[in-house]
Amino acid sequence: MSRVAYVDGQYLPHRSAAVHIEDRGYQFADGVYEVIAVVGGCLLDEEPHLARLARSLAELRITAPMSNAALRVVMREVVRRNGVRDGIVYVQITRGVAPRDHAFPASARPILVVTSRRRRPADLRAVDGGVAVITVPDIRWQRCDIKSVALLPNVLAKQRAREEGAFEAWQVDRDGKISEGTSTNAWIVTPDATVVTRQADSAILNGVTRLAVLEIIRREGYNLIERPFSVAEAKSAHKAFLTSTVVELLPVVSIDGAPVGNGHPGALSRKLRDCYLTHAAATK
Ligand code: PLP
């Protein structure tokens, strides 16, 4: 089945789908996006994703190109046309096409692009054995709560992780606290069995997976604190893990080459992952 993309009102073959060279997303990264999981043909946690998209648009004063009801139809149509049962749908909205000028154009029409692709099955080595992370300085702007397409610092940090044989890079703010990964939220479990993740301030993206896992932790009655934690605290944590739509929940077994706890995934991350997968399966 050949891939299909929705671009500004049209469903097009993926290979010929294109945007204008003066699209402000291309020239200024003036746009936002969402990645939503498709589970059994259904969209997982669609509401919080659409709420975050609306918030990102409002923060950047970009007008939504269509109603949420219409967007739901387009997303489903793209998923259907691509034959995706389990995968992701990608939604991107830019401020539109206009002659290059930093200030907002007087009248630009926002451009919506929607694509979808199948997801590879979870990497069982990562699920069972855990993953390595490195720490890097957080060189991003001060509005990381907006899911903007301006991802260059994340790209550079993820590349560094790759080159150092790690799965993810945890970004460290000027106070020595870990903000988040390049495309994941960061969590630790302290030696006294408290789960810690940074509060959703402007230093992190408030992950939809993060919100679902917070809910699970509260429901299951684990101790939880939302606060910043330092690199030193993470390195001396009992356990650590990361979350995102794409990887769900993966145990972190080393930070900068040093083992976290005994260097093996723990029962808690396994339990939380199972609960999250149950939550995902319930969407079908
Ligand atoms: N943090 C960053 C910087 C991200 O880019 C992402 C996802 O792309 C996340 C966290 C996790 O967010 P979600 O759980 O909504 O996928």
Structure description:
- The chain is α+β, with helices and mostly antiparallel strands and 284 residues long.
- The chain has helices at 24-28, 46-60, 68-81, 124-129, 152-163, 208-220, 231-235, 267-281; strands at residues 4-7, 10-13, 31-39, 42-43, 87-94, 111-118, 131-137, 168-172, 177-178, 185-189, 194-197, 223-226, 229-230, 239-244, 248-255, 258-259.
- Strands 7, 8, 10, 11, 12, 14, 15 and 16 form an eight-stranded mixed sheet that branches. Strands 2-1-6-5-3-4 form a six-stranded antiparallel sheet.
- Helix 6 crosses helix 8 (267-281).
- The longest helix has 15 residues, at 46-60.
- The protein starts with a strand and ends with a helix.
- 39% of the residues are buried.
- The structure holds pyridoxal-5'-phosphate (PLP).
- Pyridoxal-5'-phosphate is lined by residues 35, 154, 180, 183-185, 205, 207-210, 243-245.
